[in-house]
Automatic annotation (TrEMBL):
This is DNA-(apurinic or apyrimidinic site) lyase. SUPFAM superfamilies: Glucocorticoid receptor-like (DNA-binding domain) (SSF57716), N-terminal domain of MutM-like DNA repair proteins (SSF81624), S13-like H2TH domain (SSF46946). Gene3D superfamilies: 1.10.8.50, MutM-like, N-terminal. Belongs to the FPG family. Signal peptide: none annotated. It comes from the Bacteria.
Amino acid sequence: MPEGHTIHRLAERHRKLFAGRPVAVSSPQGRFAAGAAQVDGRVLLDTAAHGKHLLHQYEGDVTLHVHLGLYGKFTDGDGDPPPAVGEVRLRMANGEHWLDLRGPTACELLDPLQVDALHARLGPDPLAEEDDGGVKAFKAIKKSDRPLMALLMDQSIVAGAGLIYVTEALFRAGLRPTVAGRRLTRRRWDAIWQDLRTLMRTGVEDGRIDTVHSIHLPEAMGRAPRVDRHGGEVYVYRRTNQPCLVCGTPVQTAEVNARNAYWCRVCQRTR
């Protein structure tokens, strides 16, 4: 599932391609036909992201809400759209650009009250322009005995951070994924929150997840670049039994809350 930086990148791209002009909206697949008809020909005013949720704001107080889930994917191009191939849930076009959406978990229209309800059930987004230090998230974490990894991946607590960012932020903080939330200090939370903001902003800019410091990059260490379908240089994510880039200890893995957790038993001593 795409992490929050990808959704923010999509919001920026869709704003660039379509905002400020009327948009032709259709549903070649037919599953979103009624919704498409409601916004077809309206001006797309703006786009936004909250965590893993993408919002297209149309004139008339109507918002298109998209959650890609595991299988959702956008494609776009210039000029007129090509013949629809496959299950195209949503198609947008304005004469200069086109966009297709396939396989999302959610593709729906929301009114203002529903948009407010969506925001209310999501935690703070590290990529939000306004930053209160993730106070709401910290309060929820301090009340819980759940593993810190599970809490940070709970979208009602922190919106947008997925397994890769959470795994890497915990490594960089020296905390094991199994640490109980109630044990987290405010000092350590502030460091994790700011680290997530920095790492995810870099992800928005570069379009990939890189979490290692410059001294641990391949060229600095004389090692081969990481080869993985997710791309990017990371410390422990999906590096089971490979040497830790900092201390050389084999990376550990175990299941935590039905997800694979990765950590270094030396660099992440706090458990």
